[in-house]
Structure formats: C-alpha cells, structure tokens
Specification:
This protein is an alpha/beta fold. The chain contains 12 helices and 10 strands. The strands form 2 sheets. An 8-stranded parallel beta barrel has the order 3-4-5-6-7-8-9-10, surrounded by 8 helices. A two-stranded antiparallel sheet has the order 1-2. Helix 4 packs parallel to helix 5, helix 4 packs parallel to helix 12 and helix 9 packs across helix 10.
C-alpha cells in the first residue's frame, strides 16, 4: 500500500508522531473552548459550488500575482512561530520548500531562525510579519527586513494580548532551552503593543517604503479604515482560532471585507484552508490568495523542506482539478457566480 500523503490531512498524523506532545498541542490549540477553531473548517464545508459544464478546461492556469509578485498558485504560507519545534531546520526549511513550490512565505517575528537566515535559505519571495511594540525596536526590525529583501510587511493587528490557549496551557508549554526567538539575540523579544492604534499604521508607513498588509481584519468597518490609512493589502484572519473565541470564521467574514474595499486593496484569507476547493471558494468570494498555516507545520515535521514543497504542490493540484471540474480554467474566470 502506498502510504505517501495524498492530501494535506494526511500530514497531520505523520507530524504528531514526530513532534513532542507539548509542541504538538501548542500548534494545534485554539483559544478557550476552541469554537472558532472548529468553525473555521465547518464554515468552508457549508459552502456549495455551482459548476459550469462544456467549458474547455484542457489547460487550467493557476498562476497569479500578489502585490505584483508572480506565484504559481493563489497559495501562500501564513506566518507562524517556532518552526524548529517541528523540524531542526525550522523556518529555513519552510522557506526553501515554499519557494521550490513556487509560493510565497510570510516569515514570523517569532521565528526560531533569524529573518536573515530565512532569507538566505529562501528559494522564493518573502514577506515579513511584524508584531509592533516599542518604536525603536520595531523600526529596527522593519529596517532589517528591508535590507534582507523582504517585499512587504504583514502587520498583525488582532493580538493586543494573547488568546487563552487552554490546551497548550495544560501541557505547560515552553520553548526548550535550546530554542529562542532568533530575531532578538541582543534584546528581549517583542510580543505586541496593546496601545497600538491606526496612528501606529501611519507611523509604520512613514518609516518604510515596503507595502503594508494588515493581518487580522474581520469587519467591513476596519477594512474601510485600512484603506483610509493606505495599506496595500488585508488578510482576513481570526488567527487560526487562537485569539478571540467565538469570533466569525474567516471565510464568513470575507464577503463583508471584499464589499468594503472593492478592488482598491488586495484581500487574502487564512484560517481553515485545507483543500483546493477551499481555495476555490475563497477566490470566488473575492480573495486574491489563501494562506496556509497548520498544514505547513505538519508537512515540515513530516519531511522538512521536501514535505512543505509537496504539500503545497498537492493543494495546487487540487485547486487545478477543482477549477477544471467547475468550468473555470483561469483564476480570472473564478467569480461569485460559482457560489450558491
């Protein structure tokens, strides 16, 4: 019997068998009762598709761009912390595998390899996820990211405090002594600033020419404010169900955000993406691309950079097949008429 993964879910048990239990629970946990964590999947599963037939789908093209950067499919890697808990090479392996798959990786402020190490290992484009704290250290991170070749800043805006991840707390999770937040060798790590406001976004724009993407927006009101503050993109995200439990699923929030911004700002989505049909549904509802998080960590734990490359490849193939079976041979052919 062929035991190679045939979909993203197949990487999950492989990863669990290779990871320490407390690390596994840290990555898998959501906040409080994990209502939003479960809803992220359930919401995708409720959406139904309206396929068209007798369309020439002999050649389906999944390629697209994000902020002008070409990628092989509307699939990116979402920022997440502590990849060395999943694999010794950590974020360096993730970056290598992501680029090999023709995708873009968003590297986390809380990485276990420095942003410079990640950039050196990368075989594709990178964005840098930023937690804002005091301005001198935040500005230093922004300047380092620009020097290292990161193409955009992804500012997380939904975490003024950390969500209460009870499953992880019960396991007593802590980073092993051999690991650290590698971007902070000479200073204490940055978490997030609870006093951060829209003025902070204006300040960030004043200190960098990198495009700014806001991650963690779930409402049309905040999407409109983001436009007023001249951001380049929005990630519709509930932090994978790890912040405010009971918040709306990302896919359910997506239409409201898209309606608010129209075509003036690129909109992306994370939280709950597992299937090519999930990506297809997100695109039909107005997303430019979808970001993967937990499945990338599973694939990394299972087989390092090669696992990451293969997992993204599997999702891209699923998307191509879903496009063909729904009669949408190009990304431009995917619109809201596909959704019932």
């Amino acid at each position: 019997m062929d035991t190679r993964p045939v979909n993203l879910f197949d990487y999950e048990p492989l990863a669990q068998a290779r990871m320490e239990p407390d690390a596994w629970n840290y990555f898998q946990s959501g906040s409080d009762d994990e209502v939003t964590l479960r809803e992220n999947r359930a919401a995708f599963e409720r959406i139904r598709l309206r396929p068209r037939v007798l369309v020439d789908v002999s050649a389906c093209d999944t390629t697209t761009t994000v902020l002008g950067t070409p990628i092989a499919a509307p699939i990116m890697v979402s920022p997440s912390a502590f990849h060395c808990l999943a694999h010794p090479e950590g974020e360096c392996a993730t970056a290598a595998g992501t680029g090999a798959a023709g995708a873009l990786m968003v590297a986390s402020t809380s990485s276990t390899r420095s942003m410079e190490e990640i950039a050196a290992a990368a075989s594709g484009p990178l964005w840098f996820q930023l937690y804002v704290h005091d301005r001198p250290r935040t500005q230093a991170l922004v300047e380092r990211a620009a020097r290292a070749g990161y193409r955009a800043l992804v500012v997380t805006v939904d975490a003024p405090y950390w969500g209460h991840k009870e499953r992880s707390i019960r396991m007593g999770f802590a980073l092993p002594p051999t690991m650290r937040k590698a971007n902070f060798i000479d200073s204490p790590p940055i978490d997030a600033d609870p006093s951060m406001t829209w003025e902070t976004i204006d300040w960030l724009r004043s200190i960098t020419s990198l495009p700014i993407v806001l991650k963690g927006i779930l409402t049309g009101e905040d999407a409109e404010l983001a436009m007023r503050h001249h951001v380049a993109g929005i990630v519709v995200s509930n932090h994978g169900g790890r912040q405010l439990d009971g918040s709306v699923s990302s896919i359910d929030a997506l239409p409201e955000v898209v309606e608010a911004v129209g075509s003036r700002v690129e909109v992306y989505i994370d939280s709950g993406i597992r299937r090519g049909t999930d990506v297809l549904k997100a695109l039909a509802l107005g997303a430019r691309a979808a970001l993967l998080c937990r499945p990338i960590l599973w694939a990394l734990a299972a087989d390092g950079a090669h696992g990451v490359e293969q997992a993204i490849g599997l999702l891209r193939k699923e998307l191509g097949l879903a496009m063909a079976l729904s009669g949408r041979p190009t990304i431009a052919d995917i619109d809201c008429s596909l959704i019932r």
